[in-house]
Amino acid sequence: xxxxxxxxxxxxxxxxxxxxxxxxxxxxxxxxxxxxxxxxxxxxxxxxxxxxxxxxxxxxxxxxxxxxxxxxxxxxxxxxxxxxxxxxxxxxxxxxxxxxxxxxxxxxxxxxxxxxxxxxxxxxxxxxxxxxxxxxxxxxxxxxxxxxxxxxxxxxxxxxxxxxxxxxxxxxxxxxxxxxxxxxxxxxxxxxxxxxxxxxxxxxxxxxxxxxxxxxxxxxxxxxxxxxxxxxxxxxxxxxxxxxxxxxxxxxxxxxxxxxxxxxxxxxxxxxxxxxxxxxxxxxxxxxxxxxxxxxxxxxxxxxxxxxxxxxxxxxxxxxxxxxxxxxxxxxxxxxxxxxxxxxxxxxxxxxxxxxxxxxxxxxxxxxxxxxxxxxxxxxxxxxxxxxxxxxxxxxxxxxxxxxx
Length: 405
Hints:
This protein is of the alpha+beta class. 30% of the residues lie in helices and 26% in strands.
């Protein structure tokens, strides 16, 4: 049911030198499908990562943060689906470390050079024996196949590539993501991994990843629930042959960051397009705000409102729900008589109420579309932000009611 989202063309999702991908069937939750992914990295890479801000963050998130803090250099990432290893306390951390030790023995590195990731059911013990038993059975795969192996309730794998020409050399970027429910900043259960063969100094890459996440994975909302396991990781292998980017003043910095941000946004939007039960992809564009934070607060208020989202599901131009969400977005001095609201190109509200030229038929026509843009012009500044969301359907309830069965 994904909104205008097709499975990736495996041949178009390109390998990145310095990374090797493998998958296997561990039988964590799903039968007859790969649910374990291993990414092996070259020894000279740098990594940037951002994680969920949920205080109940999962055991693998805790261990990944600890391993990144050691500066030992990361040589492998391991991902299981079907079990989040979240809400599992000390035993969950020990299980995540046991997986790291098994990967390290197989790859030939130290356990602290392995980053573990899990996604799936919360509050269930990790079937660590199944995962460890499956590791020797992994087979080489491409990014598209690995993207399928990390899915939970996703209906479509999410993977894409970019190439950038710099100084006569081709810089490659490939990435994959999973997520369809429990999606809301900060971040929006979501995992995303991107690799590039550019060489980027680690402190700079960390800054770049945080800024890219802010306009991609931190600008989406499906259901307003922030997961315990959200992780976004970028690996820079340095195999392109270009000099290492060490400063934001570097001649290549902005070009590389722009491509990275574009790829991350495609993956983030793919998550929304594949939102659980989603039938519509909605962009909330807030412009002429006094600050980016103000614009985002209005965008989020609309994007996470169950009443707004169910109106989109019903193709019902119930404008009062949108205005209500703007009103409670937290702008104490908002002059509602000045702002304007559009559905697509149709002006629906101005001067504190319904636009004089607005007709129900015009609003209905926009609401019936599969892709809709809601524009809110606050007319109080010069800053804008975009938030991406989907409708809320009966199928969303059914999917989540049956998820553990």
